[in-house]
Design a protein that fits this description.
- It is a single chain.
- The protein has 272 residues and is an alpha+beta fold.
- The chain folds into two domains: 82 residues, Winged helix-like DNA-binding domain superfamily/Winged helix DNA-binding domain (Arc Repressor Mutant, subunit A); 171 residues, Beta-Lactamase, CATH 3.30.450.
- It is 43% helix and 18% strand.
- The chain is built from eleven helices and seven strands.
- The strands form two sheets. Strands 4-3-7-6-5 form a five-stranded antiparallel sheet, with helices on both faces. It has a two-stranded antiparallel sheet with strand order 1-2.
- It starts with 12 loop residues before the first helix and ends with a helix.
Length: 272
């Protein structure tokens, strides 16, 4: 700062914005753009050039470069040659943060609403990587016979869960063959134990946009799962509905799937 130059005093939020002003007008667009860049960088572990990054997020190259330079100076972005990747500050904060508390608070009202509408148990799984997920939230209807309070914090085999089938359907068949053996574990007489048979079902999941689990992990359990995607179409989670087979596997199933898809869309908006 030049000698004699007075420091600019930042006005308080109360002075900046009248009480009647909509809260969306208080957002800082540069901060929002920076978080968009960070989110995209998270998808490129080997790094990405500023030109590629700007194109990926629909931003001008000068704007992306300016934000990356600021983030690099604060440790949130690293640069190796001409490629950018997430920096050490992101890793440090990631270790300090609970990865799911904020997400659960956002999506729980949606789960509660649709559990009430469908009067069944809904669960939401957050994707960890291509073959792992965490069930982080659940809501139940008012029925006496339900499957509530059994799934949060538990993982199930990919080939024998509706959530797992949605995840596997995101992968190419050759990658699935690398992940799964030709002979799969059996849990009930209805479990799919042939990888080739599973591949055929996963193709159906891709075409119809949802997965079904019919007596395959536990006798009498039926489940439907729908993908939850971010704005770029990337799978970030899976919303599932679970209940007794005699109730869910009925002529009401098509309407149930329609409502579950609506719930998945609302979960996606809540997470955005």
């Amino acid at each position: 700062m030049a000698a004699g130059q007075s420091a600019a005093v930042e006005p308080s939020p109360e002075i900046e914005a009248p009480a009647s002003e909509d809260s969306t007008d208080l957002t800082n667009k540069s901060v929002i753009k920076a978080t968009v860049l960070l989110s995209e960088l998270g998808r490129h572990k080997q790094g990405i050039t500023v030109t590629e990054l700007a194109q990926a997020v629909g931003m001008t190259r000068p704007t992306a470069f300016r934000l990356l330079l600021s983030l690099e100076q604060t440790g949130f972005v690293d640069r190796v040659d001409n490629r950018y990747l997430l920096g050490w500050q992101m890793a440090r904060l990631g270790r300090l943060a609970d990865p799911y508390t904020g997400a659960v608070a956002r999506i729980q009202p949606v789960l509660d609403e649709y559990a009430g509408k469908l009067n069944e148990t809904l669960g939401f799984a957050m994707i960890r990587d291509e073959s792992a997920y965490d069930l982080i939230a659940e809501a139940s209807g008012s029925r006496y016979l339900s499957v509530s309070h059994r799934y949060v914090g538990v993982s199930y085999p990919l080939h024998a869960s509706a959530t797992g089938k949605v995840m596997l359907a995101e992968l190419r068949d050759d990658r699935i063959k690398e992940l799964l053996p030709a002979k799969l574990d059996s849990y009930t007489p209805q479990t799919i134990t042939s990888r080739d048979v599973l591949l055929r079902e996963l193709q159906q999941v891709r075409e119809q946009g949802y997965a079904i689990l019919d007596n395959e992990i536990e006798e009498g359990l039926f489940a439907v799962a729908c993908p939850v995607r971010d704005a770029a179409g990337v799978l970030v989670g899976v919303l599932s509905l679970n209940g007794p087979i005699q109730r869910l596997k009925s002529d009401r199933l098509p309407d149930t799937i329609v409502q579950l898809r609506q719930a998945a869309d609302e979960v996606a908006k809540a997470l955005a």
